[in-house]
């Protein structure tokens, strides 16, 4: 990984904007800045972390733009290298010209994520923190940004470092027995090690158990709206979204395909999916819709099973109920504004909310019930507790916990210290993958290419 070159990239999105920022990082950042930037006041040398007004000029003296520029000397910068930023007018031509001047001066255009990669390689942040930067940029809800922010501030990293230190202590103890084999491990020492490892494994498992809520806060809860045609699914979706997205009609079966929309409910991000009505049909387009609905049930966190409370429950409703047999279901009895007919036994067992999409009655209750069930309360959870929200982290931590389990079994089964040490090394490696100490290059590559350019 090349760290010699000074890299440059636009730090703001391309297109027109009030301000565009060109960012430089590396040994030559200061020299390059001085080469093209002429401050308004005669100031001698540039002070670090100070914004200067001036002009970007071509070598022969013609002005490219009026700008503000700042130099951030290492190590107090995003990358821990010298970083310079030029705040120019945010037009593509001006930005392009400034970039060209810097490249002509010897800088190289940065690859996506390369600034953050340098921050990682220079030890300012670890891998989990670097990943959180992407998540923060991509966050589409407050809850998701809280999870990312907690991780970026190092909450998860501290937990993982703690796990690593304790594992390293066990390893030191075990290795002492490899070095001095004549001193048999005393049963008391074994007990202590086993107890320590058990505590550690319990803590790892507790962190693993936060994955579901972490994932939901980050990715959003997948909520499926299911029911036979004409019960009011599209209308419900519209009300929840607060705007008319889905097409509402009186002809059964008009919502042919699935529609997906995102919204935030009491701080909880949701991905709301409206399916084609479940019905037994010979229409091939509908049949496909039904099949897809069944598939979607399997991947939903929650199914809102909608029935029309003013009509007798029919075969199609029962079909819908069947489709969500293994799912978490909330029964939504719609059209509460009309005279109601009683529900059959099979439906009465489900948790239920009665609403009228038309009058708005019961909608707030429905929203509370959904959010309450998944702990949505402004998304403060991600801010205050350490949450695991990334699949990569989960896999690595799971492996660490399993290796520690093997180590414990080895202790009770009188394995040789060499084997015990091996299990602990594997535990350390798995933990190190999360924070980056032992992450192979291809993992780094995969992670940093997810960044946008200029970050
Ligand atoms: P879908 O096929 O399940 O998506 O149902 P739609 O949302 O298209 O609604 C079908 C019909 O039921 C439309 O004419 C809606 O106006 C009507 N509808 C929806 N919700 C209510 C309600 O709460 N009360 C009454 N009276 N009619 C409703």
Question: Can you put this structure into words, describing what you see?
Answer:
By secondary structure, this protein is α/β, with parallel strands linked by helices. It has 3 domains: 7-126, Gyrase A, domain 2, CATH 3.30.1360.120; 128-210 and 386-436, Up-down Bundle (Four Helix Bundle (Hemerythrin (Met), subunit A)), CATH 1.20.120; 221-373, 3-Layer(aba) Sandwich (Rossmann fold), CATH 3.40.50.300. The protein contains 17 helices and 13 strands. It has helices at residues 29-36, 92-104, 114-121, 127-138, 142-152, 155-179, 187-208, 211-219, 233-241, 284-299, 315-323, 345-348, 363-373, 381-384, 391-412, 417-435, 441-448; strands at residues 7-10, 17-25, 37-39, 50-57, 63-72, 83-90, 108-109, 221-226, 259-265, 268-274, 302-308, 329-334, 352-354. The chain has a 7-stranded mixed β-sheet with strand order 3-4-5-6-2-1-7, with helices on one face. β4 and β5 (63-72) form a beta hairpin. α6 (155-179) packs antiparallel against α7 (187-208) and α7 (187-208) packs antiparallel against α15 (391-412). The two termini are 17 Å apart. The mean pLDDT is 87. The structure holds guanosine-5'-diphosphate (GDP). Guanosine-5'-diphosphate is lined by residues 227, 229-235, 248-250, 255, 277, 334-335, 337-338, 356-358.
What keywords describe this structure?
alpha/beta; 455 residues; 6-stranded mixed β-sheet; 17 helices; single chain; Four Helix Bundle (Hemerythrin (Met), subunit A); 7-stranded mixed β-sheet; binds guanosine-5'-diphosphate; 13 strands; Rossmann fold; Gyrase A, domain 2
């Amino acid at each position: 990984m090349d760290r010699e070159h000074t890299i440059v990239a636009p730090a703001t999105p391309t297109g027109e904007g009030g301000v565009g920022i060109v960012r430089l990082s590396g040994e030559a950042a200061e020299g390059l800045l001085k080469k093209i930037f002429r401050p308004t006041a005669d100031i001698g040398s540039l002070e670090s972390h100070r914004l200067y007004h001036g002009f970007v000029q071509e070598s022969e003296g013609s002005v490219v733009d009026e700008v503000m520029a700042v130099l951030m000397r290492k190590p107090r910068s995003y990358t821990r290298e010298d970083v310079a930023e030029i705040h120019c007018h945010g037009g593509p031509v001006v930005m392009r010209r400034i970039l060209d001047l810097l490249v002509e001066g010897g800088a190289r255009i940065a690859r996506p994520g390369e600034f953050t990669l340098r921050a990682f390689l220079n030890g300012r942040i670890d891998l989990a923190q670097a990943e959180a930067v992407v998540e923060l940029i991509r966050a589409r809800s407050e809850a998701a940004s809280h999870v990312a922010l907690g991780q970026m501030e190092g909450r998860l990293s501290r937990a993982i470092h703690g796990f690593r230190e304790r594992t390293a202590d066990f390893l030191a103890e075990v290795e002492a027995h490899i070095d001095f084999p004549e001193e048999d491990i005393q049963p008391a020492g074994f007990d202590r090690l086993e107890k320590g490892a058990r505590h550690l494994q319990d803590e790892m498992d507790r962190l693993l158990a936060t994955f579901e809520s972490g994932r939901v806060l980050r990715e959003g809860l997948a909520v499926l709206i299911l029911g036979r045609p004409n019960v009011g699914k599209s209308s419900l979706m519209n009300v929840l979204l607060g705007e008319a997205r889905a097409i509402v009609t009186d002809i059964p079966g008009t919502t042919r395909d699935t529609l997906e929309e995102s919204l935030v409910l009491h701080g909880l991000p949701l991905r709301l999916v409206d399916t084609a009505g479940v019905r037994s049909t010979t229409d091939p387009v509908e049949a496909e819709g039904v099949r897809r609905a069944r598939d979607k049930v399997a991947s939903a966190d929650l199914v809102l099973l909608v029935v029309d409370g003013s009509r007798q429950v029919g075969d199609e409703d029962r079909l819908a109920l069947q489709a969500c047999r293994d799912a978490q279901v909330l029964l939504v009895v719609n059209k509460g504004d009309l005279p109601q007919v009683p529900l059959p036994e099979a439906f009465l067992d489900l948790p239920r909310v009665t609403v009228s999409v038309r009058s708005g009655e019961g909608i707030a209750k429905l929203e509370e019930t959904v959010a309450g069930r998944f702990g949505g309360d402004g998304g403060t959870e991600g801010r205050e507790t350490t949450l695991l929200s990334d699949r990569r982290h989960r896999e690595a931590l799971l492996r660490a916990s399993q290796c520690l389990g093997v180590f414990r079994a080895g202790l009770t089964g009188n394995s040789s210290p060499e084997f015990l040490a091996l299990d602990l090394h594997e535990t350390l490696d798995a933990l190190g993958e999360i924070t980056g100490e032992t992450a192979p290059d291809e993992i780094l590559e995969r992670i940093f290419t997810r960044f946008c350019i200029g970050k």
